Description:
Helix content is 22%, strand content 27%. By secondary structure, it is of the alpha+beta class. It has a domain of 227 residues: Rossmann fold, CATH 3.40.50.
Amino acid sequence: MSFARILGRLSLSACRCVMVLSALFLLLFANFAFSLPSFAATPEAALSWEPSRTLVFVVGVLKWQDKSYLQFTTKARRDAQLVEFFKSKGVPADKIVYLCDTEATINKVYDEFDELLEKSKPDDTLIFYYCGHGWLDDNNEGFYANYDVRTNDNAISTRKIAAKMKNKFQGSTALFFADCCTSGSIGNSLKKQPGGYKWGMATSVTADGGSTSNWTFSQALLDALNGHRFVDTNLDGIVSFSDLQKYVTLEMKRIDNQTAGANSGNGFSDANYALAKVMNPNEPIPRLVDVKWGGKWWKAKVLETKDKQAKVRWVQIGYDTPDNDEWQPFSNIKEANGEPFNGMSAATTRNDFKVGETIEILWKNDYYKAKILKAEGGRFFIHYIEDDDSWDEWVDLSRMK
Length: 401
């Protein structure tokens, strides 16, 4: 360790100790992945799904006939963005079904799903997505809320969805995504009724968990499909289904403190299924901070800095759009670990750190070698190589490289 650092530590020891103790109780830093500049995909991208041979079924319900259900804002809805993504990639219009709010009645959901499955052919891929409300009955059977839902008898049954897949889908692969409470129940239903196709699942929460009203999961899915660098956990230039699952798991934990769902069946290879090619290999991992507004601290992302101010985007539903971006002074911003915001960009372009690995940690504007001892929910407990155990601490990605 350098003599300068020793002197710095002596003068800051009291502050540093408070920081270390506080870090042990630190809330996981939050993030939502904002839209970044697009880069043209190269024609040689080797993807596991072919747009012309893909069927897309999207049900997005944010308003319900029964007003006792919590209604959501329709501002910047990610289900619509997901549909636009597949259209832009060349999925034929007659192979895309999008049932939005009042369109998503129980009869229409089942009828339209049947019709789409009847169009399937060998080697086709099906993509299923739902957002809204979900729950389990007393037998742990999963349900998703259609617009005109009244009871379990006229709700979207994950068991029935799985049965329709088994009996009518002629393709080879299916991907299931859901953003709601108990969203992972679709995986349980698929396991109980295996068909002649491989399938992978990523959901906002496990089969028995409650889920946030934020768009955290759906935004993560869009980030993966659009090939953002920070979803590529193994840095191979391809965003795989495994990368998506890991990224979703991290996002849901550090933003909403919940456990995402991941499942697969019939030989589906998460690691080998290529969703997208990374568009910009030099894209940094977004910086995560807390911003003081209205007397409270809110999760946000720093987009750029200038003259001791940072342009931030909020992560809360209804405020997570460019229209709500704000410039905030550094004095209103703190790092995820509670330290004052220093205006520096994220220290790393990696998110695949492993326990036992030797890395470098940013501390007081300089880097020091450390070893990762533990990893938990997007944080890492590290030991400085040249220090004793008293300096061990929890850090996040913004201080690692």
